Write the structure tokens for this entry.
Amino acid sequence: MTVTLCFDDAYKEVYTIGFPILKEYGIRGTLGIITNEIGGSFEGYPLMNLSQITELHNNGWEIASHSVTHPYLTSLTDEEVINELMNSRNALRDFGFKVNAFVVPYGNYDDRIKNLVKKYYYSCRPSILGTNSIPVEDRYMLKSKWVMNDSFETIKIWIDDAIANDNWLIIMLHNIDKPEREYNISSENLREVSQYLTEQKIKVLNISEVLNPPSIVIPLIISSAILLLILVLRKFK
Ligand SMILES: [Zn+2]
């Protein structure tokens, strides 16, 4: 059983409030970055700047793309969608982050978007309510549960269900200590969740740690093997 904490939009307080709490418990999260708004804001709420994102990355957090401008992707042309997918990925890679996962703005997703996402990312988390079996059925349809000012008791039930079913639970989070926001968690509840995960000895991993995308090692082994084979064959000519 595994839990992932996925913070969409990368609000500033995830760095100032969330990161210190999670760090106390040795827990890391996944951040969904809107690349045009790094150091900017979303819906009037400030977002992390590059040095804050970099610090989280250096502390083992996963950096995922959440598009360039956070649009409704299904209302865009293929070319516009590709720009959102490719330019956000490239911007994050230029900053030195490994980017494998895409997090869909507003969960606005269909087969056309899915097929385009496949070209640029190893996985995708739209907004489909539920938990994931392991191995996952479709890594471009990762399910999640969304924290909307829920109590610790509610989140504890999600965790207990995932334990009982040996599932992968992705918890989708946004703001912290902004109770006026629909998708919010209080810092007290975030602490209680962190404490519970630690007490229960639950593995808290990033999306890509669960899915394990092929690293550079495998192509390296294959190419070395081919090279060796060529050399051997030449010798026996
Ligand atoms: Zn978002």
In short: The chain has a mean pLDDT of 95. Residues 2-235 form a domain with the TIM Barrel fold (CATH 3.20.20.370). The chain has one domain: 2-235. The longest helix spans residues 217-235.
